[in-house]
């Protein structure tokens, strides 16, 4: 038997379901794909999640199990929204695997988000076992991800297993130096994960809108850039801590009153090395910063990237994120991209194929990295068939 990585301790895997031939298994997948409309109705804009769900379903069928799948789609908040029905998703799934029924969008029922036990019982009625393969929903206390393991033998599917193995492995046994790049817009959203990462990493690179609260904490002028004054003190504490923090030393800014975003071209764009003048908005890290970040990333043993370092959707402010993304893709160490916008940036820049692991969960990845656990994983570890962990 192969040794399980420590990150998977106590988590029941597909093998822990025992003999499943002839059994009926409910699989909670994440088939929440981006949907659009054309003259013929709903269209699936990207079926990556549907294709990714197949290996677990296939494995179960290969063992002789009968498989039924459930998922959420969008945020209908407890009402039936015809545009978010699973019909087109089930049709697409059927092109990849035969004989998998898909239950209607679990979020059409208000009891899903309320984690109602009666809803859990209805969901699993007639099933012998349950599999959770929906990492992107596993940070939620929702019925379909935390409920079933209380009642039937349960397991993590292959996708969920891989996420926990890789992200958990980062927290437990990363190759050093461990460098994290944390970007995105709001510092408030990332402070929790930063507080964990300062204890786990050697260097944290901070970019994006959130960098300006750190720069302001150092007394730098940040003009009209994103700033959260209520968090200045907490940012200062992180800067004063033992972990090396790299902040932008130059910033690309947009002139007062101009707009930014995909296809915007209006306004003047200037690179500032010192303070950003009043009214100017910092929207990307400058070339000097990007180079310095890239050096730290390329020579790392482990790299974790979560969040773009600039407004990469706007071509004028994409270069910093591109340079960082290329360094992540070319690092000699292990590269992990933590879902959400950084995964989208890696894909936009054609780098996704060179990255060792792209997480499928945005909020779920951040929460897992912050707490080292998620509600749905705890639920699985409490299943009756979960492997015992030697204390
Ligand atoms: P998040 O969802 O917090 O990861 O943030 C991602 C978003 O942050 C992207 O859409 C970027 O456009 C945005 N972003 C990155 N850098 C900045 C910046 N300097 N100012 C404002 N927004 C930014």
TrEMBL record:
Q: Which InterPro entries match?
A: Phosphoglycerate_kinase (IPR001576), Phosphoglycerate_kinase_N (IPR015824), Phosphoglycerate_kinase_sf (IPR036043)
Q: Which reaction does it catalyse?
A: (2R)-3-phosphoglycerate + ATP = (2R)-3-phospho-glyceroyl phosphate + ADP
Q: What EC number(s) does its UniProt record assign?
A: 2.7.2.3
Q: Which GO terms describe its biological process?
A: gluconeogenesis; glycolytic process
Please give one Pfam family short name. PGK
GO MF: ADP binding; ATP binding; phosphoglycerate kinase activity
Q: In which pathway does it act?
A: Carbohydrate degradation; glycolysis; pyruvate from D-glyceraldehyde 3-phosphate: step 2/5
- Which SUPFAM superfamilies does the record cross-reference, listed alphabetically? Phosphoglycerate kinase (SSF53748)
**Keyword set includes Ubl conjugation:** no
Cellular component terms (Gene Ontology): cytosol
Keyword list (alphabetical) reads: ATP-binding, Glycolysis, Kinase, Nucleotide-binding, Transferase
Protein's UniProt keywords contain Disulfide bond: no
HAMAP family reported for this sequence: Phosphoglyc_kinase
Q: Please give the family membership noted in the entry.
A: Belongs to the phosphoglycerate kinase family.
- Can you say what this protein is called? phosphoglycerate kinase
Native species of this protein? freshwater metagenome
